[in-house]
Input
Amino acid sequence: MSLTVAVCGVQHPHAGGHLRDLQAAPQVERLLLWDEDPGAAQEAAAILPKAEVWEAPWGEVLEREEIPVVCTLLPNRENGAAVLEAIRAGKHVYSDKPGARTAAEMAQILAACEQTGCHFCPCYPWRVDPMALEIRELIREGALGDPWSCSAAWMTSTAKARGPQHWLFHQEISGGGILSWLGCHWIDLLSFLLDSPVQEVSAIVATRCTEDIDVEDSASLSLRFANGVLGNLRAGYALNPFDGYRPSDLGLTLEGSLGSVIWRADMRSGYELRSAASAVRGCAFREIRARYDDGVRGEGYALAHLTAFLEAARGRGDPPATARDALHVLRVIEAAYRSSRERQHVDVRAD
Output
């Protein structure tokens, strides 16, 4: 069954990548693009052979039974309401992360998914990354023994370099700063790798730059996971790139009673495994080189993630990420803000 997918919004920072993924996805036969600026929709459709512009009001899309899937790419302030409306109308929805501005909005989306049976899939593409899946399996096999600790960092270019006038840097629209835009990936990925949600947060967040923004550009979190693992996360709009200087610095490590995994730099080259569990992969130290193909991300943003969701929309398996996953991430982020504001540990389970 080929799908018709309607896209709500084409001006999101990741819209170009998502639209290229939708164009490349074999499950998609037809794309209907809608935007409050018809000219922007026309410009996007002009370079996508499967696409045409939806000129009627957006609400009419949700009344069409031949359109089972919607992709929402709106600023966070509008996105949660658009997702909720589509789910209640019986549509499966794919969206950029975090999916909504607040945990309360995502809780409504989760309730609607449970009521209608529709899927909501936030785009957390590291969940389908070959290295992430391999590391997750190593942890499950016991390569680290009893997992003890983890750390992660995502440092990227400054707000000034990115354009402080963008909605990403304004609380009323975005809901948060570096944690909502990039730190969220690591909150989700660490929980995914460890098969365990975050239960407790202690955090300090701040705005260190002098630009006219009202969200955090720096964040430092201490985390306790349900399985007892202790972790830390640093995230920031902190790098001022110049020629020859990498505009981002990201990576993570995981340690346990029998070994560790180090996955660093741009996370595209591979990882290091140290393990005393000789029965697992058979050696004390190995450097594993990455083995990627174009099907993981392709020319877009997260093709493998999208196609897994589209298969779920066709009744074949589960989506790679769900409304419940998105809710967990937003609850952790809000717990971090509360912890920083009130200078105390926050139990995520109590929120």
In short: The longest strand covers residues 147-157. The two ends are 41 Å apart (CA to CA). The domain at 3-125+301-321 is CATH 3.40.50.720 (Rossmann fold). The chain is about 35% helix and 25% strand.
